[in-house]
UniProtKB/TrEMBL annotation:
It is an enzyme of class 3 (hydrolase). Belongs to the glycosyl hydrolase 100 family. Invertase that cleaves sucrose into glucose and fructose. It comes from Nyssa sinensis. This is Alkaline/neutral invertase. GO terms for biological process: sucrose catabolic process. The keyword Ligase does not apply. Signal peptide: none annotated. GO terms for cellular component: chloroplast. The lineage of its organism: Eukaryota, Viridiplantae, Streptophyta, Embryophyta, Tracheophyta. Pfam families: Glyco_hydro_100 (PF12899). InterPro entries: 6-hairpin_glycosidase_sf, 6hp_glycosidase-like_sf, Glyco_hydro_100. SUPFAM superfamilies: Six-hairpin glycosidases. The keyword Acetylation does not apply.
Amino acid sequence: MTMGTSEAVLQVLSGAVPHLFGSDPCFSKSDSIFLSRSYIRCRKKRGSRPMQLLNYSRMLKSSINIHRFPGVGRVLYGNIPIEQSAFGNYKCQRAESASGVTAEDGNGAWYVDNAKKFSTINGMVNAPNVLELKKVEELKQEKEGFTSNGDVPATGTGRDTFHKVSIDPIEDEAWELLRESMVYYCGSPIGTIAAKDPNSSNVLNYDQVFIRDFIPSGIAFLLKGEYDIVRNFILHTLQLQSWEKTMDCHSPGQGLMPASFKVRTIPLDGDDSAMEEVLDPDFGEAAIGRVAPVDSGLWWIILLRAYGKCSGDLSVQERVDVQTGIKMILRLCLADGFDMFPTLLVTDGSCMIDRRMGIHGHPLEIQALFYSALLSAREMLAPEDGSADLIRALNNRLVALSFHIREYYWIDMKKLNEIYRYKTEEYSYDAVNKFNIYPDQISPWLVEWMPNKGGYLIGNLQPAHMDFRFFSLGNLWSMVSGLATVDQSHAILDLIEAKWADLVADMPFKICYPALEGQEWQIITGSDPKNTPWSYHNGGSWPTLLWQLTVACIKMNRPEIAAKAVQVAEKHISQDKWPEYYDTKRARFIGKQAQLFQTWSIAGYLVAKLLLADPSAARILTTEEDPELVNAFSCMISANPRRKRGPKSSKQTYIV
Ligand code: GLC
């Protein structure tokens, strides 16, 4: 007898978390040093982690004493590095570095080798490199003996080294700007500021460290072998997770990660001559529109995995507090609600598009990040009795989520024609048109736009509503995470190639296509003057998306597509001063209200370059289904009355 789908899935997957950790994770000496320089504000935290909170508050008391700068008349600002020697008894300590190898020895040679490789991709990217080849050759000889094997380098802090071996002026500039955007806390780097335009006074909240914006910065640093900033970011934002946060007396769930935080320097209580630094998070309670950033925690998990994979330092993900942090995020996402769908139900503006754009419901971007975070967490969670239920829920969700998205979000010519001929008002368990989509919803633009070859995942699916807009980040990250099947992923790339003039044009990459115009713009955005048609979130073009495009292309073994996009960006992104976004249908103007020197535009470009130079490094971001999930998925497909895909597995591990 064959079991029902969900039972089968359960049986296949129970206890399926890989056993990564042999030893009992506990605090090391260095961890307690790290905690001791945690924020003073932690005293206000609620007791979500009782055991460690005891530790923290004890530590924090002492940290009040060691954070004084008696007699120092200077106020410290978060984004200005603190010269430790300048402060008498300032005792903040750096997190230990992951290995002893310096960039001086490792990075430089690696960089030169790969930059050379990159310059030959398609014979077109990085033209300036060619001019520099002689210099590169000389440097290479100089460095002989230190050369790495082309893998991700060991570690280091290669600022000076970089300048010695760098071969591309745009990249050079980008690294310099990225380093200038670094934010320090107690003398250690913990993130990068969202934008740093020296000539702008209108900074809004761009002087904060945004979680989502830091991801490309973090990846760039990881790929460069500079692990400390990423480790610090991970551990400090983890502390912010259990911050007391309320809006008009209501508190959101405990696993929520902030959208952003700021390092503030304030006078120490009762002592006018001393200052202390505190981290001040924003969970959306101050953000424009008061939106909770659902994506922050998901990105945090993805970065945590990338850190471990790149640095080889698994001690961070093994820590008790980090494991607890992962579980808190998962619990928040996996909590039961009123939902019929396995997709995450969120409000408008809960991700990169952080203001009203009609993406409330089950937007693709959140689903792709959710899937990616679930797979990443599955890899990192230490097996223990207490989390068996959570792991079971996680496994079930992975299968149901991938089935739902692959099946119901996918459109191409064939599917569109199917929808065009849909019957409606089907009341039954095996309806074809499950969500009661009225064919009239297929807009004229889509009929024109859909290429014969290619397809994509739609932006959102609700009862009687398919949002047919193409949202780039959701589609790109569906490829990276494997939420889209291999065939679907290739079809998405086919579509990107076919629609190059719409999606890339003068600057990669359109955030969504097409823009909302006229009455639709009025009703859906609330007549948002920042989101006018073909501007900002409403069909604007965002250079930061280059890095996600690059990871997706590399995963699908089609890096030349990303290389071509990088080449487009390189034509003027530096002259334009690294804008946050571009406007107009073809991305011809720097965005109306775009910040300049936007850090994630800079970092996104750098990550794209670094990965194209060493495509194998993209594995720190990509995830694959393991055989157990594939098995469970095919079991689910065969249990679906509507579609039977592929042969049943011959290994009937899920038969009672
Ligand atoms: C804008 C973007 C958001 C980003 C923030 C900081 O609000 O919509 O995605 O995180 O700016 O750059």
